[in-house]
Amino acid sequence: MLTAAGVDRGEGEATMGAQYFGADSENGDRVDDPSEDALFMMMSDLNDSDNTFVAVQPDEDDPAWFTSVAVLDEGGYEIVRRDTTRNEHEVTTAISINVIARDLTVWVATRDFPGRPPRQISTV
Q: CB of 82 within 8 A of CB of 67?
């Protein structure tokens, strides 16, 4: 199995888990450190019966942030973004999974990850 974190080579060989965060869908699919394309594909697989949401959050106990995308009965998607360290809690709706995947990728990129080297801001 190919994931964003590495290749599962079968029994006896260790695979690398998510370095920073993971995306999980209701049907049990998981992608470690998902790209924009991986989020798009996971949302493309959502339906209104047995795979209604995708949740993205850090791989840690009691994560400080999460985001989720859920199918709405009337069509479209509900997007929830929550970050307790920044006092953010936003609920929006959208119809384009392309736009949602891009927005979530940008939002997740600005989150804090324990152990990740600090971002450098250039003033040049």
A: yes
